[in-house]
Design brief:
By secondary structure, this protein is α+β, with helices and mostly antiparallel strands. It is built from ten helices and 21 strands. The strands form six sheets. It has an eight-stranded mixed beta sheet. A four-stranded mixed beta sheet has the order 16-17-18-20, covered by helices on one side. Strands 10-9-11 form a three-stranded antiparallel beta sheet, with no helix packed on it.
């Protein structure tokens, strides 16, 4: 019943808002967040690694929108994952500077695996100095974008680029033994299996080929900014620190649109928790460093331009935002599992941890100290009748596909790794398959039913942007 009411109010609201004729303003700024000091620890692998230079600059790409009643800030940061505490602190500073409510700010990580560590996962611990630096820079970027607010027009479009996304979780033949780092052989799928293996059966899930794009122009129809969303984990073929293909996309789209100085493009990570850029049914092609990033970025940028080819721009766009928090359980180890992990770590004492078994032993001990429940932030923004859902996890593709089909808006995209980091988000069915993304660690610890609870709340949040729920 509520869904029908929301749909009716959406239509009526659109008419009413057209009558009110809100006038859109927008400001954008790409804040350089490349480290000023080296070496820095880098997230993305089992073992920690150090970077002593940057191949290309890292940015916090900031967009601020204002319809005269509501202001929104969207930030996409070249980082692997960003904990909620860091994001909350940056938002609080930016809110004091700009007056934008912290609830109206969306800050996400691209998930480049070539950025300084600000979250503790596997062998990498947060780089304390860079963490403080990043907090300050994100806040400064939002403030700068806010100071550039000027009359603008917005348009949305959706196209597909199916050739760059492949599900990385594969069902294997029954004869294949998939040993997990806890000593079990119950996994039914393997993440990143051997290419062209005779043991491959089929991918364990779908991919989402959609490229969703929101473009902003100034009052003179010059390109001002572009926000895009694509469900690809990362590429990872750059030396040293790098914004990965996300950064190359920003440059590519600027060239394709013939944008001038000050134009800001940002590519957010969609639902790519189980998706990468490897076709496991083919042999590995040979690329020079950075070549694959350029090819992928160009393909996605071309799709974004195609999506906007016949888009209609309007300055009469209304902004809405709704946020909530839900409490979810933590998958914690048993006493026996902790004891096993401590034994493994005892044998490795005095040296660096090696391999998955030792790495996950440390993760087991750390997860045992987690609270039984955690509070997870969720957010929905609606811009000119299109929805953005923010989830603080590495969300599986099928979740994004489901949400796109079941909200009241014509266009819905999901931004992962947004407003915090709470690990992978597989569905209950994917948990039964097992595999890397389900292995309990700081990279995957939410209860098995978390994705169902998050999807339910996300749909309600989108509806809340039209007809808010009554507070209990």
């Amino acid at each position: 019943m509520r869904r029908l009411l929301v749909l009716l109010l959406t239509l009526l609201n659109g008419v009413a808002l057209r009558g009110a004729e809100p006038s859109l303003r927008a400001g954008a700024y790409a804040m350089d967040v490349t480290p000023e000091k080296y070496p820095v620890s880098v997230n993305g692998g089992f073992a920690d690694r150090k970077a002593n230079s940057a191949h290309d600059p890292l940015h916090a790409r900031c967009l601020v929108l204002d319809d005269g009643t509501t202001k929104l800030a969207i930030v996409v940061v070249d980082s692997c994952m960003i904990p909620r505490e860091l994001i909350d602190e940056a938002k609080a500073i930016a809110s004091k500077k700009t007056g934008i409510p912290v609830t109206n700010m969306l800050v996400s990580a691209t998930h480049t695996h070539s950025a300084p560590a600000v979250a503790g996962v596997f062998g990498s611990d947060p780089d304390a100095e860079y963490t403080k630096f990043l907090i300050r820079k994100i806040a400064e970027g939002i403030d700068k974008a806010h100071s550039l607010l000027a009359p603008a027009k917005v348009a949305w479009g959706v196209a597909e680029e199916p050739n760059q996304v492949f599900n990385r979780r594969w069902k294997m033949k029954a004869s294949v033994k998939n040993l997990d780092p806890f000593g079990n052989e119950t996994d039914k799928v393997k993440m990143n299996p051997p290419r062209m293996s005779m043991d491959l059966v089929e991918p364990a899930g779908p991919t989402d080929p959609r490229v969703t794009a929101m473009a902003l122009r100034d009052a003179n129809d010059k390109p001002l900014a572009l926000f895009a969303n694509y469900s690809l984990h990362y590429v990872g073929d750059m030396p040293a620190l790098s914004a990965d293909y996300f950064g190359v996309f920003a440059d590519s789209i600027a060239g394709k649109l013939k944008a001038g100085k000050g134009f800001v493009a940002m590519l957010s990570n969609g639902t790519s928790g189980d998706v990468n850029n490897i076709n496991f049914k083919e042999t590995a092609p040979k690329f020079q460093p950075g070549e694959r990033s350029r090819l992928v970025a160009d393909a996605v940028a071309s799709a974004a331009v195609k999506a906007l080819d016949k888009a209609e721009y309007t300055s009469r766009a209304t902004l809405r935002c709704a946020t909530s928090e839900i409490e979810l359980g933590v998958r914690k180890p048993t006493a026996d599992e902790v004891k096993r992990a401590e034994t493994i770590l005892g044998k490795a004492k005095g040296r660096e941890l090696k391999g998955a078994e030792e790495t996950y032993a440390r993760e087991t001990v750390l997860i045992a100290k987690y609270p039984d429940k955690v509070t997870v932030p969720l957010q929905a923004m609606v811009i000119d009748g299109r929805a953005i859902i923010a989830i603080p996890c590495e969300t599986f593709a099928e979740i994004g596909l489901s949400l796109q089909k079941t909200t009241v808006f014509k266009t819905t995209c999901v931004v992962s790794l947004a407003n915090g980091y709470f690990g992978y988000l597989p569905t209950p069915a994917q948990h039964k398959f097992g595999g890397y993304e389900t292995w309990r660690a700081r990279s995957s610890f939410l209860e098995v039913g978390a994705s169902d609870a998050i999807q339910t709340e996300a749909r309600l949040l989108v509806a809340d942007t039209i007809m808010p729920r009554k507070k209990k």
